[in-house]
From TrEMBL:
Alphabetized GO MF terms: glycosyltransferase activity
InterPro entries in alphabetical order: Glyco_trans_1, Glyco_trans_4-like_N
Name the record gives this protein: Glycosyltransferase domain-containing protein
GO process terms (BP): lipopolysaccharide biosynthetic process
UniProt KW keywords: Transferase
Organism per entry: Desulfonema magnum
All residue ranges annotated as the Glycosyltransferase subfamily 4-like N-terminal domain in the record: 26-201
Recorded superkingdom: Bacteria
Gene3D superfamilies for this protein: Glycogen Phosphorylase B
Pfam family, one: Glycos_transf_1
Domain Glycosyl transferase family per the UniProt entry, residue ranges: 221-380
Length: 410
């Protein structure tokens, strides 16, 4: 007989924000018979503005797709300012710690998503309800803070580093997105038996949703262009100047190759202005699209592009775009190193190039462009099959469920 668990998902982000482990994760656990609720903030990511239909208040309860969602106050922000980002994280952390325990039912297990700042709320909830906490590590703190440029080496950074280590050690169990992350956590003194690797999945509901493309793409389709698409958040970590440099090279070699950037983020306007200033006629920008258009947008592409800056941290990172692109069944051009490159090579889902190297990026695109349509189709299908077997939501949720059961029974 299956044991029914009461599971609390603690995350600063949740639907209607574009977040794959919010309501979809809760619904998947509920479909397996469990009682699930969410503690989160008011939606403002990625633009830093509160979504229509919401306003900041001390707390709010709502139900999304049959999942109870408890929201607590935060300071909305997502810009270049390190101070504002810290306010954003800390304000939610304090609200979740102070108000959260009074809003949620007693859980059997708490799942906390990623942010080190959630440790306060997780610790109080753990003590209040006497239940285990699983921390899902998606960014290696404080490395992700320093690599983003939000904080330089300082005494404050040393304090943050010590705090991060203590958070990792106090969690009942850690899950993380790649073997490289697990190895790094072990180096930092976490027993390897306390860490599980569970690969991220993508927004499968919308990847499989069929809808129309936006009208502003009509000219691209009419020109029978070869479309290289970047879809998602345009931030500092994506290193998109190198992509514009590659686009400039290819404009002279093969003007039929077009670059389409879809989405928003703190670097979007700067990158857009740079493309205009350089007269890159082969580069098009589309606004962030509603989730239900994801499939139609991705299916426009001949090649889907993933690019990350060339830093040590990204050797162990697998960006969520990899899973989304594989699930879309399209060939991938990956500008990254380490674990994500290993997945693309192992699955034979695409071509791996040197990140932040415009010549390598351009050559990789030309390699895909010169393949036959059937060769590219085979790449996409291999990626899709690998996703279903290794990276899908079903595979991930089963692993989380086993961990939750084990912790509750101990």
């Amino acid at each position: 007989m299956v044991q029914i668990m009461r599971i609390l998902l603690l995350s600063q982000w949740c639907q209607p924000e574009p977040f794959f482990k919010g309501v979809p994760f809760a619904k998947a656990l509920k479909a397996r018979g469990h009682d699930v609720e969410i503690l989160t903030g008011f939606p403002n990511y990625p633009g830093g503005k509160i979504y229509p239909g919401y306003r900041i208040r001390l707390f709010q309860r709502e139900v999304i797709d049959s999942i109870p969602v408890n929201r607590v106050a935060l300071y909305p922000s997502h810009n270049h300012s390190g101070f504002h980002r810290i306010l954003n994280y800390m304000s939610f952390a304090l609200s979740a710690a102070a108000i959260g325990p009074l809003l949620v039912k007693k859980p059997d297990v708490i799942y906390a998503y990623n942010l080190i700042t959630l440790e306060w709320a997780a610790w109080i909830l753990k003590k209040w309800h006497r239940c285990p906490v699983v921390f899902d590590i998606q960014d290696m703190w404080p490395d992700s803070v320093t690599d983003s440029g939000m904080m330089q080496k300082s005494a404050l950074l040393r304090v943050l580093n010590a705090w991060c280590k203590s958070v990792y050690r106090r969690a009942t169990h850690l899950t993380t997105l790649s073997p490289g992350f697990k190895n790094e956590l072990v180096k930092r003194g976490i027993p390897k038996n306390n860490i599980s690797v569970i690969y991220n999945w993508c927004d499968e509901a919308n990847i499989n949703e069929s809808t129309s493309v936006p009208p502003e793409t009509n000219n691209l389709m009419k020109d029978n262009a070869f479309i290289v698409m970047f879809a998602g958040t345009m931030g500092v970590m994506q290193g998109l100047d190198a992509i514009l440099d590659a686009a400039e090279r290819l404009l002279k070699i093969e003007p039929k190759i077009k670059f389409v950037f879809v989405g928003g983020g703190i670097e979007c306007e700067r990158i857009k202005k740079s493309a205009i200033d350089r007269s890159l006629e082969n580069v098009t920008f589309l606004e962030r699209q509603p989730p239900e258009r994801i499939k139609a947008i991705l299916q426009m592409a001949d090649v889907l592009l993933v690019h990350l800056r060339d830093t040590a941290l990204f050797k162990i990172t697998i960006p969520s775009k990899v899973q989304a692109y594989m699930a879309a069944g399209k060939p991938i051009l990956l500008g990254a190193i380490g674990d994500s490159a290993n997945i693309v090579r192992k699955s034979e889902a695409g071509v791996v190039v040197t990140p932040e190297n415009p010549k390598s990026i351009a050559n990789g695109i030309l390699k895909l462009y010169r393949m036959t349509e059937n060769e590219r189709k085979r790449m996409g299908l291999k990626g899709l099959q690998y996703y279903k077997e290794k990276l899908s939501m079903d595979a991930g949720v089963q692993k989380f469920e086993k961990i939750f059961y084990k912790l509750i029974q101990n």
